[in-house]
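Researcher: Next entry in the queue.
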Amino acid sequence: MSNPHLPQEILEYIVDLLHDKPETLKRCCLVSKLWVPRARKHLFADIRFRSEDDLRSWKNAFLNSANSPGYHTRTLFIDYPRAVMAADVEEGGWVRAFSRISSLDVDNGTWYLNTPVASLALFHNFSPTLKSLRMCPIAFPCPELFDLVCSYPLLEDLTIMGRDESSGNDENRGPQTAVPSTSPPLTGSLGLNIFGGMGNTARRLLDLPNGLHFRKLAFSWHYKEDLPWIMELVVRCSDTLECLDVMGRLPCWPFSISH
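Model: Structure for this entry, 259 residues:
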């Protein structure tokens, strides 16, 4: 008697139930070729590059980035952005293989705060489905950072930790690049921890044409000049705001507010 044939949707449902059991999913890939595509969807949903060795292992396993399982990745964590950027330049768009992620987390490491993360243009709109962006901690030119933010039409959550390296960091000057005609919805959370003052970053957020609709705001401020910007951001989000977390770090006047 031949083996009973299960419909493909039933097989996929079985594999989906194993989404949090990577070792079992790997065994599924050995059972049948028909199980491989569905198992890959879960095995490669969360990719983390924490070192050059991680990056090297991925490149050796998937020599052709266009055919890599990065297509299945939904969360991408990069803890060594300079190595990834160098590889992308060498291979002509290696990062763009991760074209369907919804969350990007770039952590430059505290030791590299004084070193800008080369050019952020590499990350521009390589995944149109991105909804969450975290850049921490980086030295960044404010105009370049907001070009990146505005390149994601579905972006909801934004976290920035670092120092604005814009030339002549003068908060009374106008934007150094043209204000975009559209901006992402920004309906989730905003976290800002900008060393040296958040004026440039806050002003660019306030200038976005579609307005701000964040439900959660979290700020770490270092100078009294940051307070008016924080207050203005809170006012702009007053119709949607559900949670506010502010921590002050003035040497002579420290306090924290949680609401």
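Model: DSSP finds eight helices and nine strands in the chain.
Researcher: Noted, moving on.
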